[in-house]
Design brief:
The complex is a heterodimer of chains A (90) and B (110). Chain A is an all-alpha fold. Chain A has a single domain, classed as Helix Hairpins. Chain A has 3 helices and no strands. Chain A is flat and about 55 Å long. Chain B has 110 residues and is mostly helical. Chain B has one domain. Chain B is 83% helix and 0% strand.
Chain lengths: 90, 110
């Protein structure tokens, strides 16, 4: 009962956080700002998937969360390497 | 009793996630914007994953270790990506609100 209420509030808060990240992704004055926004979007998506797993009572979503976290990290590192060196794999 | 603990952890995690993204959207320059989400969001997701681990460990009888994997991965990779992002920002010479260290000490000496 109280768990469902907390989950509802948490869904709203994380969705608002995703909206703020998306606003920074569109607005960001420089390229690193947009990369930070993308990285935070990935991490918040992991949070949203964990909440969905608790809500549905299914442990299946952790594989997806792990994959998304992995892809987000690799993407951030690749974009930063591109900005730093002008090339990803030298 | 357990439900109250889970609800507290979930609300804590969601609150930290929201505050981190608010910092990303509202803070004035790139380095402060980097500071917001990289700390707060890691802690927020960590609290939610602890809540999920407790929930599934109690519900299914045995310990649930998937969450531990995600937590470990996020806690290892968050500082690495933040470090690379700040290096990229310094490389592009983004504008910062803080005075440059050499300039500030030079003014004091004069």
């Amino acid at each position: 009962m109280i768990l469902d209420t907390a989950l509802g509030i948490a869904f709203v808060l994380v969705a608002a956080a995703l909206g703020l990240n998306f606003w920074r992704l569109l607005r960001g004055p420089d390229i690193p700002d947009r990369i930070v926004a993308l990285d935070t979007l990935y991490v918040n998506t992991v949070a949203l998937l964990v909440l969905l797993g608790i809500h549905l009572g299914s442990a299946l979503y952790f594989e997806a969360a792990l994959l998304i976290a992995l892809m987000g990290f690799v993407g951030t590192v690749a974009l930063c390497k591109y900005l730093l060196r002008g090339d990803i794999i030298e | 009793m357990l439900d109250y603990l889970l609800a507290f952890l979930i609300l804590l995690g969601a609150g930290f996630t929201f505050i981190g993204s608010l910092g990303l959207a509202r803070l004035p320059d790139f380095y402060t914007r980097l500071h917001g989400p990289t700390k707060a969001t890691t802690l927020g997701v960590g609290a939610m994953l602890v809540a999920s681990a407790i929930h599934f460990s109690v519900g299914e009888g045995g310990p649930s270790l998937h969450e531990l994997l995600v937590t470990l991965f996020l806690f290892i990779t968050a500082p690495v990506s933040a470090h690379l992002l700040s290096k990229a920002g310094l490389h592009l010479r983004l504008r910062s609100r803080a005075p440059a260290p050499g300039k500030a000490s030079g003014e004091q000496r004069d």
